[in-house]
Amino acid sequence: MSTSQQTDPLIGRLVDSRYRVRARIARGGMATVYVATDLRLERRVALKVMHGHLSDDTVFQSRFIQEARAAARLADPHVVNVFDQGQDGEMAYLVMEYLPGITLRELLREQRRLSVPQTITIMDAVLSGLAAAHRAGIVHRDVKPENVLLAEDGRIKIGDFGLARATTANTATGQMLLGTIAYLAPELVTRGTADARSDIYALGIMLYEMLAGEQPYKGEQPMQIAYQHATDSVPRPSAKNPGVPEQLDELVLWATERSPDERPTDARVMLDRLREIERELGVHPQVVRATPVGLVGADDGIDSGEVTKVLPGAFTAPTVTEDVDNATKLRRRARRNATKGGWLIALVVVLAALAGGAGWWFGSGPGSLVSVPDVTNLSFAEAQTALTERSLVAAEGADYSLEVTAGLTIRTEPAAGDFIDKDTTVTVVVSQGPAPVDLPALQDRPASDVTQILTQSRIDVSGTDEFFNDLAAGQVVGVSVTPFGGGDAVDCTAGCSVTEGATAALQVSLGPVPDVAGQSQDDAAAAMDAVELKTDITREYSDSVDKGRVIRVTGIGDDPLRKGDTVTLVVSDGPEPVKVPDVTGDSIRSAVRELEALGFEVNAGIDDGDLPLGFKYWDVYNVRSTNPKAGAMAPKGSTITLTPGL
């Protein structure tokens, strides 16, 4: 959480003994929006609080209350619901429907331009919501991407009716011209009047921006942009994006005609044409029919209850209520040509009006607003200078960032490009570098679990070293982490403190080397091959292991053993053979002792004829011969047979 969030005095406060403020969502030139909990109804709501310096301004308070009344009169699935309005001490607030998600402005910042299906889906929903407002006699007056909400569940809604007025009260004062300059209709600049067709113009600019990836008019000062709205024609979006169909080109040009009489009369007319285009292109918003809703307490029989929501494989194409034939299109084009001469005269009048109104514009009208400069990747001091040059006040905030170097600016709140009042405080969020991460002990855990822990902590796993170990196969033996930006690796096997963006190397057990002692040579070699270990064979004599069986495995030392390494199987050749000594002529007793000392068994109890050769005769009889004979090689433990004689 940034410093600005932590120091906001409203966070945690109970408003009007009912709404517990949880966190700040957004901040604009007129109000700040928070997410709060309605303790009475136990639901999440959006709480819009008027800025403190405007609390004493009766005009702003009136506009604030009017927003609640204007939006509360509408009950349309594409309009943000307003639940409540009130005053807590000096603080005026609105309670609105909370829609987790993003604004169309955020989507445009992320994707720059939208696809044709995306654009049609969003425009269909916004036009449906505005059609309900226009049908109820309400002009929005501040249509722009910031006021189009794209909920996580697929709903698309238009909100912020803070500038709304009844269509009959169509004269706009300076205070009414606070809509974003980029979407300001020409008649608001030249005559100060607005009706439903002014919303249509703003929708045309917004449609252009979605298709082309940028606004049609640019300028250093709001006055320059307003001048272009009053004097220039919006170009075709296909000039910037060749993939835009001609029908959408024409819809943009129709909606942004400088003369209100040449535009669609209201949002329903433009929606009907959009749905014709949907049919022609075979591209439809994914919608599902809901119960028709409109103005609360009234029903004019017009269905506007389409709820935009992604429902794979189950959507109904919108209906078309009016056809526009070629003759109609030609008549409209002829009227546009006929009025060009009149516009040349009007241009002179407009320029005079603009010159005369420049003082008002820059003093208290829309020209008094300034855009927040882009100070990304500047130091706080540099950002403060840039803001001061725009008559804005800089306040330092902080946040962690992997992308922005510590000490440089990540973003501003309000965002770069937003138009706000002079002397407004802008929070400059400065990077503190990567966020710290505390890793738990990782040894003996499955490698998949350790990888998940590291990835969730925004630590990259750069490599895995597998070797044979006493741990079970797949268990982590060790973890080494290299800090973000380089440096000496840190052993994190038993846990450690690092930062996001670090890289980790894992050591993972392949399990123990197979125990093949006592197995035949072939079986032992097959067992090693199964775990991808190569084998060499050596042989040695063994008194305890049968010939052809493995005595032991060598090559498993202190260094880790990996797949493809070679181990040596030591195979038994049985007991070592011994040379039979020459004991002929020796007494039986002496021969037995000598042979047994060499590891032989001795068969000395042999009959000599009919006389048994008992122990008492061992000193009387001598050895006549041996079997095997003297000098032969015989294994230890084998039996030497003595032939006695006198």
Give structural notes.
- By secondary structure, this protein is an alpha+beta fold.
- It has six domains: 3-97, Phosphorylase Kinase, domain 1; 102-357, Orthogonal Bundle (Transferase(Phosphotransferase), domain 1); 372-431, Trypsin Inhibitor V, Chain A; 436-509, Trypsin Inhibitor V, Chain A, CATH 3.30.10; 521-572, 2-Layer Sandwich (Trypsin Inhibitor V, Chain A), CATH 3.30.10.20; 577-645, Trypsin Inhibitor V, Chain A (2-Layer Sandwich), CATH 3.30.10.20.
- The chain has 15 helices and 32 strands.
- Strands 1-2-3-4-6-5 form a six-stranded antiparallel beta sheet, with helices on one face. Strands 20-24-21-22 form a four-stranded mixed beta sheet, with helices on one face.
- Helix 7 (222-231) packs antiparallel against helix 11.
List the helices and strands and how they pair.
Blueprint: H1 3-7, E1 14-15, E2 19-27, E3 31-38, E4 43-50, H2 58-72, E5 82-88, E6 91-97, E7 101-103, H3 104-111, H4 116-135, E8 138-139, E9 148-151, E10 156-158, E11 165-166, H5 186-190, H6 196-212, H7 222-231, H8 246-255, H9 267-281, E12 287-289, E13 306-308, H10 326-338, H11 340-363, E14 369-371, H12 380-389, E15 393-399, E16 409-413, E17 419-421, E18 425-431, E19 436-439, H13 447-456, E20 460-467, E21 476-482, E22 490-491, E23 496-499, E24 503-509, H14 521-530, E25 534-540, E26 550-554, E27 566-572, E28 577-579, H15 588-597, E29 601-603, E30 622-627, E31 633-635, E32 639-645
Parallel strand pairs: 15-18, 20-24, 25-27, 29-32
Antiparallel strand pairs: 1-2, 2-3, 3-4, 4-6, 5-6, 7-9, 8-11, 9-10, 12-13, 14-17, 16-18, 19-23, 21-22, 21-24, 26-27, 28-31, 30-32
Helix pairs in contact: 4-6, 4-9, 6-8, 7-11, 8-9
